[in-house]
Amino acid sequence: MSRRLSVTVFIVLGLLVSLLIAGIVSHYASASPDGLEFVAEQEGFLDTAQDSAVAGSPLADYGIAGVGDPRLSVGLAGILGVIVTAAVGFGLFWLLLRGRGTPARR
């Protein structure tokens, strides 16, 4: 039983650290363009770039549309990204383990 508790504590602590990094530390990430954008600028074809099909989505450009404060917008987008990723990951693990039953104890 204690092993299961330690795994749970590890997962919860991992999620909390991920949320902290996504919500606070992500604001201090570099504002410089990414590799592809940098090369396109250096080679002179950046002006031919087109917006993606999802450019108008609520989470485009690493922020949340409608939030006036850029720091808050980026932080909330990071937190939402962690929550969605964790939910999908845990959901997939749940589906995979659902059919296997209780794992054998050694």
Short description:
The protein has 106 residues and is an all-alpha fold. It has helices at residues 2-23, 35-43, 70-98.
Explained architecture:
The chain has a domain at 1-28 and 71-100. 57% of the residues lie in helices and 0% in strands. It has three helices and no strands. The protein has helices at residues 2-23, 35-43, 70-98. Helix 1 packs antiparallel against helix 3.
Strand content range: under 5%
- Rg, alpha carbons: 20 Å
Count helical runs.
3
Kindly name the structural category: mainly alpha
Low-confidence stretches are none
Largest β-sheet summary: none
Mean pLDDT: 85
Helix-residue proportion: 55-70%
Give a quick set of tags describing it.
mainly alpha; 3 helices; single chain; elongated; 106 residues; 57% helix
What are the SSEs and their pairings?
Layout: H1 2-23, H2 35-43, H3 70-98
Helix pairs in contact: 1-3
